[in-house]
Specification:
heterotrimer; A alpha/beta (349); B alpha/beta (443); C mainly alpha (46); A: 349 residues; alpha/beta; Rossmann fold; 6-stranded mixed beta sheet; 5-stranded mixed beta sheet; 14 strands; elongated; C: 46 residues; mainly alpha; 2 strands; 43% helix
Chain lengths: 349, 443, 46
């Protein structure tokens, strides 16, 4: 039997029994041993852990004097040398939720693993769930015992440095990571099972929860095209003929920069199309179809546009994961912005 | 609208060993293959073939089969209209799904050839089968005894003709093997029949989306997975589940989870059949060709597939697909269209790499609220299988590798690697039909 | 559209230029959400 873990707990003024809203300015303080729900926590930890100390703080105090409150937390971390920190549970309370999350984050930064507890709808969840372990709880203190049970179980694993399993198994809210693993049944059985449950109005859990796409604020409209520097980019798989850069036709993780300052057009003698998602021969014969250099040069010559940016960007936009696409897009965007480009034509295929 | 209740008897002949011998026959689980007779027959019936040989590969052997274009299960129709794998390579297009079919279980006829899919660019054949090692553990066809048809066509033919020549040769070998059990009484018979359920149960359709290479190759005839031999972009079809059981959808699409063998043995169709009359009423399969090139077409095909399901009385649906990239759009639009018709839908799919917390669906839609994930293979092979697959003792096929995938999963052209050497896994290995337990978990 | 050999070089070039001009016009239009511009008619659809 390994030694009991040293647990530091955080609760607000209400759960410490000091008082309600009228006592929300109660300053942060350190107390010995368990306070309020910490006693139940201590019971639930059993032989696995001892609540050595508790930080108590009023919700308003924490909100208004966060630095002071966190200084007290850091002091407690130094004084008590805990193996793990448990905060809350805060259930649906917003101010308390943020305090629990901040304390958990502070502990983590100091190298002490931590677990916060709160309801999935708590406003602190979207702010912190990617960075700390938050155990999902019911909305009200009626669910105190199951909440603390789950928090204690995860805290013991973290405190002992054990491997932490998937969110659904361990009871914490997803931290925005997805990893491979094996389920008990093959996919075809899970699919038919899930369908039957859905048809019977029985609960089922999608294995890929809906994750909305990023919303991007569009750049303002271009006001003076005749004075604008226009850049060109393509996901049509433009390559140098013979592919000396070894650009892949799919699942691309890198983009080409091509200097076109001295080129009036893209000649098929020098360029080609290599893309695993469309018929390449036509674009290979005239690469200006996938990166319209010849056309914008014409418009540059008659002053319809100011100038064509000297570097063009190219990759094959096929099967690249969103994270990689996001990274490459940000890199290209940053380079264009730094070069003072006003607008960009991106050709997709 | 309700289908006539087609009745199909599937007679299964298990194969526990394959040996070469003087006469092609099956007895007590041992399939004897008269190699010279079969090769002579194929050369007569398929004169476009220039070189052809047969080799046997068994599970557990240190063998790599390279490059692999398809794996076919030997089947023969012994009663009822049509032929196994109808429509492909000029075969009869009569409607299948009734009468009796015999199949050899536990073996594959592997099409091993250097012929590329088409001249459209980028769609190279970099697939292979290892008969042992980490890749073999995942791939259903690696667990089969494989009769490898090492075949090359007359190089003067255009690429589409070359494709049909080598595939026809493969089907002819499969036919010759299946013929050995045409007149025998099968050790196992299963009956597949979508009779009305008593009591009435929720009607379910299966929407099976398969790739069309038409957009990429610029030709409606380009060889690929086909519906009654038709690989081109077509509006959705209604098939009886028994037509799937008889191989009405057949042919490969460049991964080992989308071969003729996997689509004829589609585990979702089998499981829906197993639940027919128990949990659900398996009404029909909607066969849907994907890789439409415009948003309008994608929306239209999705709407029409959902309308068909509604007219079939469906209350539930399972949707699968076999591809990657932009085809995701018409597939997820179909999920949305089904849900909007009030049809409760489950979508089985692989995911993109979730690195960096990125969404793993190209277009996440809130209507797709019941997804079964088969994970993402690239990263599994790279991260968990220590990068490369081990070298092997023997290669069946081309001793030289022309293409390889890069460490991040991209297809790269390389020159003259020994095929037996340690190598990266093929480009894509998404499990399209839920064969494996692999999945993705939120952390 | 462009790249169709039956168009002939002049029409092919004219359509190509129209598409590029359409894209440049789209850059000059204020938008606040994904917006579809048809370069041949400059129909705008949100």
């Amino acid at each position: 039997m390994s030694r009991p873990l040293r647990v530091l707990h955080y609760v607000n003024q209400f759960f410490a029994g000091i008082g309600g809203e009228d006592k929300a300015n109660h300053p942060a303080e350190i107390r010995d041993g368990a306070v309020g729900p910490g006693r139940l926590l201590a019971n639930l930890l059993g032989d696995e852990g001892i609540v050595v100390g508790t930080v108590v703080c009023g919700d308003n105090f924490f909100q208004e004097q966060q630095e002071q409150a966190l200084a007290v937390v850091r002091q407690a971390l130094t004084d008590w040398t805990p193996d793990v920190v448990i905060t809350g549970p805060a259930f649906i309370s917003g101010r308390y939720g943020i305090a629990c999350a901040e304390v958990a984050r502070t502990a983590q930064e100091a190298g002490v693993p931590s677990v916060a507890g709160m309801n999935a709808e708590n406003p602190a969840v979207p702010m912190y769930s990617q960075n700390i372990y938050i155990v999902g709880t019911g909305p009200s203190p009626a669910s105190m015992e199951p909440a603390l049970t789950a928090m204690a179980r995860l805290a013991v694993k973290l405190g002992r440095g054990e491997e932490i399993g998937p969110a659904a198994d361990e009871g914490y809210l997803p931290r925005g990571e997805r990893r491979l693993g094996y389920r008990a049944q093959p996919g075809y059985l899970r699919a038919v099972d899930m369908l039957v449950r859905k048809l019977r109005d029985q609960p089922f859990a999608s294995e890929v929860p809906y994750q909305p796409v990023d919303k991007v604020t569009p750049a303002p409209a271009l006001s003076n095209l005749a004075g604008a520097t226009i850049a060109l980019a393509t996901t049509g798989g433009l390559i140098r003929r013979g592919n000396p850069d070894h650009q892949p036709a799919s699942n691309t993780r890198s983009f080409l920069r091509i200097d076109v300052a001295d080129l009036a057009e893209l000649s098929p003698k020098d360029f080609d199309a290599y893309h695993a998602g469309y018929y390449n021969a036509i674009a290979g014969d005239n690469p200006n179809y996938i990166l319209p250099l010849s056309y914008v040069r014409e418009l540059e010559a008659v002053d319809e546009i100011g100038s064509v940016h000297s570097t063009v960007y190219a990759l094959a936009g096929v099967s690249t994961p969103v994270a990689e696409s996001r990274r490459m897009g940000a890199e290209i965007g940053a380079e264009l912005a730094a070069a003072g480009v006003d607008g960009c034509l991106l050709v997709a295929t | 609208m309700r289908f006539e209740s087609k009745r199909l008897e599937m007679g299964t002949f298990p194969v526990r060993d394959v040996v070469f011998g003087d006469e092609t026959r099956w007895a007590d689980g041992v399939l004897t293959v008269a190699k010279d007779d079969i090769l002579r027959e194929v050369r007569t019936k398929e004169p476009r073939v220039e070189q052809i040989d047969l080799e046997i590969a068994k599970p557990g052997e240190s063998v790599r089969i390279w490059p692999v274009r398809d794996v076919v299960e030997p089947r023969v129709k012994v009663s009822g209209s049509g032929v196994a794998y109808p429509g492909m390579c000029g075969r009869d297009v009569a409607t299948v799904g009734e009468g009796r079919t015999h199949r050899l279980d536990g073996i594959g006829v592997v099409e091993v050839s250097n012929v590329v899919w088409h001249a459209g660019g980028g769609d190279l054949n970099d697939q292979f089968l290892d008969m042992s090692g980490p890749l073999a553990e995942m791939i259903p066809e690696s667990k089969l005894i494989n009769v490898c048809v090492v075949v090359e066509p007359d190089p003067i033919l255009d690429v589409t003709e070359q494709n049909y020549a080598v595939h026809n040769a493969t089907l002819l070998v499969a036919d010759a093997l299946a013929r050995a059990v045409a007149d025998l009484e099968p050790p196992e018979i299963e009956v597949f029949e979508t009779s009305p359920t008593d009591p009435p149960l929720p009607a379910v359709v299966y929407v099976q989306c398969t790739h069309s290479p038409q957009a990429m190759s610029n030709s409606p005839k380009t060889f690929c997975v086909s519906t009654y031999g038709m690989p081109q972009l077509m509006s959705p079809w209604i098939l009886h589940p028994n037509e799937i059981m008889d191989g009405a959808i057949n042919g490969p699409y460049r991964t080992m989870f989308a071969t003729s063998w996997t689509v004829a043995n589609n585990p979702i169709v089998k499981e829906l059949y197993a639940r027919h009359g128990v949990d659900l009423d398996f009404r029909a399969v909607i066969a849907f060709k994907t890789e439409w090139t415009t948003q309008r077409e994608k929306e239209l095909m999705a709407a029409q597939a959902a309308k068909m399901a509604k007219m079939l009385g469906a209350e539930g649906a399972i949707v699968t697909w076999d591809a990657g990239g932009n085809e995701f759009m018409e597939v997820i639009y179909t999920v949305r269209a089904l849900e909007r018709e009030g049809i409760r839908t489950v979508f089985l799919t692989s995911e993109d790499n979730p690195a960096g917390g990125a969404p793993t669906m190209l277009e996440p839609l809130p209507e797709a609220d019941a997804i079964v994930s088969t994970g993402y293979f690239h990263s599994l092979l790279i991260d968990e299988l220590k990068e490369k697959l081990p070298a092997v003792n023997r290669v069946i096929g081309n001793p030289v590798k022309i293409y390889e995938r890069s460490p991040v999963g991209s297809i790269m052209e390389v020159s003259g690697l020994e095929a037996r050497d340690s190598t990266y896994a093929p480009h894509r290995f998404d499990d399209h039909y839920g064969w494996t337990r692999l999945s993705t978990f939120a952390y | 559209m462009v790249g169709d050999p039956s168009l002939g070089p002049d029409k092919d070039h004219a359509y190509g230029l129209q598409i590029v001009r359409g894209a440049l016009r789209a850059l000059q239009m204020p938008v606040d959400a994904p917006t579809l511009f048809d370069p041949l008619t400059m129909d705008v659809r949100s």
